[in-house]
Amino acid sequence: MLVAVFADAHAHGDALDAVLASAIACGTEQIWSLGDTLGGGPDPERTVTATRERCTIALAGNHDYGVTGSVEPSRLGPVADRSNTLARKRLSSDDMAWLRSRKPAARRDGVQAWHASPRNPVWEFVGTRNAGACLGAQKAPLGLVGHTHVPDAWQATAGGGARRITIVPGVALDISEGKWLLNPGAVGAPRPSQLRWWNGLDAQAAEGAPWLLLDLDESTATWHRAPFDPAPARRRARELGLV
């Protein structure tokens, strides 16, 4: 079975549309979202609607909880706070009810998925210092996380450690042996850098929004990029006072 996995759309409709179109063109049978559908961009209705319509799995992330009120909005920073305020005003009562029904973790077809990490599915960032411990907490051979905004692949090593595997977009990674923890990267949010949110998105848009193609029958993982134009969303955000 072919599964498309994405994370962190962050209310960026154009980037999410590009990823979904790319995933559908690859013949995926299911699409899974690892959460943070909201928080940052100008398109809360679009990202919620697309996720509801397309995704077999749709997790909640910390920014989604900021919209529902389960997380103090100021904890998420000013960019997300302004975007989440917009989301609370514009999402329908049905959308809000759906959002409140989301969980930060799921398991399907022998794969475990979390928004953030196996140890703390809402807040913990998986990185060099804790990837081994996170893999130790993971029960399934394959786990999926988002939250960091960075495409990543970690393989468990002897003694409770983890080895970071270099990702080459478009090249399949064999995940048939051992235990793996994979991150598709962020669809509508920048990787951590010295650039501010919108400048970071502009810099990354030419590379394309990242997503992950899993072939569960062949045990491979392939990262893809879906190019999009960041200018229209930035204009919408400016008109709404989000920038």
Describe this structure in words.
With 243 residues, this protein is α/β, with parallel strands linked by helices. Helices cover 32% and strands 21% of the residues. The chain has eight helices and twelve strands. Helix 1 (13-25) links the parallel strand 1 (2-6) and strand 2. Helix 1 packs parallel to helix 2 and helix 3 crosses helix 4. It is globular, with a radius of gyration of 17 Å. The N and C termini lie far apart (41 Å).
Task: Note the topology.
Layout: E1 2-6, H1 13-25, E2 30-33, H2 44-54, E3 57-58, H3 62-68, H4 78-90, H5 93-100, E4 105-108, E5 111-114, H6 131-137, E6 142-144, E7 152-157, E8 161-164, E9 173-174, E10 180-183, H7 197-205, E11 209-215, E12 220-226, H8 231-239
Parallel strand pairs: 1-2, 2-3, 5-6, 6-10
Antiparallel strand pairs: 1-11, 4-5, 7-8, 7-10, 9-12, 11-12
Helix pairs in contact: 1-2, 3-4
Short overview:
The protein has 243 residues and is of the alpha/beta class. It has helices at 13-25, 44-54, 62-68, 78-90, 93-100, 131-137, 197-205, 231-239; strands at 2-6, 30-33, 57-58, 105-108, 111-114, 142-144, 152-157, 161-164, 173-174, 180-183, 209-215, 220-226.
Tally the beta strands.
Answer: 12
**What portion of the residues fall into strands of 2 or more residues?**
15-25%
Q: Tell me, rounded to a whole number, the average pLDDT.
A: 96
Uncertain regions spanning at least 5 consecutive residues? none
Mind telling me the C-alpha Rg?
Answer: 17 Å
